[in-house]
Amino acid sequence: MQADIKGTTMPILEMRLDPGDQLVSTHGELAWMTPSVQMSQTTSAGPGGGGFMQGLKRMMGGGGLFLTRYDGPGMIVFAAKVPGHIHPVDINPGEAYFVHRHGFLCGTSGVSPSVGLQQSFRGGLFGGDGFLLQKLEGQGQAWIELSGELTTYDLPPGQTLLVHPGHVGMFAGTVSFQITRVPGVANMLFGGDGFHLVALTGPGRVWLQSMPLVQLAAAIQPYLPSNTGDAAASGAVGGMFGDMLRGS
Fold it and tell me: Domain residues for 92?
């Protein structure tokens, strides 16, 4: 199996599979592939993957009941959904990594994704989605999509970082984490739950992303036509995208 990450701002992951090689991904990650690759659906990510119950855990972590499995030989390509990075990580037996809910792009068949944490917030910056993490364990290699610029920190034992939940990209299973609430003025701004931060405490490595998807969505929201907005504005936006698709 050969993995090549190509591009800069909007990278792709090009995987070349030999006969007998397998990859798994969540539904909808495929960009393109050669006809020789066989695609199927499974609830298990390889031997000991947990089957149906593991699929239910994935659903709790923001994933789906089924994983898509790709069998070689052939080429398969996954594309980043937003500007950022595709980062490979090796997972060994007894290790685990926690990844933000949209981060798991694909992995070898021995990698098992499941729920790591589900924490609900009543409003504020999180749009009702709360804080969701996927847990990756097993044995193999996984590829993670992280949005914006990427910064890593190696935390020694006992050192803590307080991080906005949206900026948490990934961290090693040796890092402990806790949701903390900042009281006071934030209660008036962000609702009854106040303003939440994630306390990440070493030892272990953390990967932080500079552009949370929820903040990207909030940034472009004022430029999108509303259901009750001006129909002419909506038509203009539709025409602009139509011209882009036609190459005008």
Answer: 2-222
